[in-house]
Structure formats: C-alpha cells, structure tokens
C-alpha cells in the first residue's frame, strides 16, 4: 500500500507505477520534501516485485524548473555552517542513485521547461521521451554555483558526450527538444498530445518481458556503465555545492 504524498501524485496501473511531480505552482521545483517523497517511492518500488516500470512526469506547464533555490537561503539561515544544506545536497544524490540503480525500468515523460535539477532527474531515467515544446537548460554557472546537483556530471557526460555538455554548461544556453534528441538526452520527440501514446509504446512490451530478464539487463547495464570508474568523484558533489551556495549567500548578505 503506497502512502499519501504532498508533492507527488502516484498511481499504480498493473505493473506500471506513474509518479507525477505535483507542485505546478512552483514549476515542480525540487525541494527537500520532494526529495524525501521520491526516496520513499523509489524504496517502495524496489520492495514490490509486481512493479516493472515507473513513469516520471510533471504536472502543469513544465516538467521541472530546477531546485527550490529559495530553500537554500532558508536552510542557511537555520544553520549558517551549511550542515543542513549539505544534507539536502546528499539527499539529491541519493535520489539520482536510486533512479539509476533501481531494477525497475524508469521512463521520463517530459514537457515544457526542464532546468537544472529537472535535467538531472530526467537523465537518470532509463528512457526519455519529450514533447516538441521542451526547453532544457543547465543554468548553474550563471547562478554562481557548480553543476553538482545529484551527481549529474558523469551521467550527462556518459549519455550526451563531453564536448556538447561542456558547451551547454559553460554557456548556460537553453536548447530545444531536437537538440536534446541529437545528444541522446531524449530518445524520442513527439507532439505533446502524443506523449502518453509514446510512453505506452514502451510500457506495453516492457510489461510482457520476463521480470528476471529485465532485472538482469538493468544490473548488467549499470555494472558496465560503472566498470571504468576507479573512484566516484560525485561523492564530493554535495560538499562542492554546499560550499559554493554558502559562499554566495554570505557574499549577498554583506
């Protein structure tokens, strides 16, 4: 039995779990509460062998417009040492790790704005379909912080290629759905009214696959993706992000 959530809408349809970010008034910004609820649902997914597929989407006009930046100031006022903020950053990494390593096949259903942390949530899903109105952006450098949310950098480099990712991070330029598909950030691009049909074209055959074969395939892909990793530099991301935000906030207050 799934619990009730404040920031997510969750529906189980046979072997498919639909999870929708549901704070459209904030552009589905990723707050600590959203991260807590995502961790809860991802843990429940791993504990339920009947769930084969999880579809992640966003309510309203945008999938996700990034992290809840107003929360950073609040947390630093609560704890000027940055300890609470560090905990939040670590939580983001745990959510992305859970998305990447869950044995359930994860599908991102994207539309509208996909910014910063929203890009992170998307690229950690196995399959990604986007509406032709998608607009992506990695704005961190423009905001004075490193692109360290959730350990996104190695995933982006692996999925999209170093040269293009370097350009998009350094310039903080926005890019459209067709560019995202060229970079393999999106697997498919469709008109927005065809998003559900595109997702169904994936979920229907996946639901017929052997559960054991799906789990093994996910484990193999995760193992091969990490085979060349001698040390996981993303373990430093929470420290880097906390230090940068703390320094920026202190400078603003002076």
How do the strands and helices of this protein lay out in sequence?
Elements: E1 8-13, E2 16-21, H1 32-47, E3 53-58, H2 69-78, H3 83-101, E4 105-110, E5 113-115, H4 117-123, E6 127-131, E7 135-137, H5 140-143, H6 152-160, H7 162-171, E8 174-176, H8 177-182, E9 188-190, H9 195-208, H10 211-225, H11 237-253
Parallel strand pairs: 2-3, 3-4, 4-6, 5-7, 6-9
Antiparallel strand pairs: 1-2, 7-8
Instruction: Specify Rg, calculated over alpha carbons.
Output: 18 Å
Shape: globular
Oligomer: single chain
Helix content: 40-55%
* Number of H/I helices: 11
- Series of H and E elements: EEHEHHEEHEEHHHEHEHHH
- Mean pLDDT, to the nearest integer, reads 85
> Strand pairing plus helix content: what structural class?
alpha/beta
Q: Count the E strands.
A: 9
List unreliable stretches of 5+ residues: 227-231
End-to-end gap: 50 Å
Question: Could you describe the largest sheet, including whether it forms a barrel?
Answer: 6 strands, mixed
Strand content: 15-25%
Order of strands in the sheet with the most strands?
A: 1-2-3-4-6-9
Descriptive account of the structure:
It contains eleven helices and nine strands. With 254 residues, it is α/β, with parallel strands linked by helices. The strands form two sheets. The protein has a six-stranded mixed β-sheet, sandwiched between helices. Strands 5-7-8 form a three-stranded mixed β-sheet. Helix 3 (83-101) runs antiparallel to helix 11. It starts with 7 loop residues before the first strand and ends with a helix. Strand 2, helix 1 (32-47) and strand 3 form a beta-alpha-beta unit. It is 50% helix and 16% strand. The chain has helices at 32-47, 69-78, 83-101, 117-123, 140-143, 152-160, 162-171, 177-182, 195-208, 211-225, 237-253; strands spanning 8-13, 16-21, 53-58, 105-110, 113-115, 127-131, 135-137, 174-176, 188-190. The model is unreliable at 227-231 (pLDDT under 50).
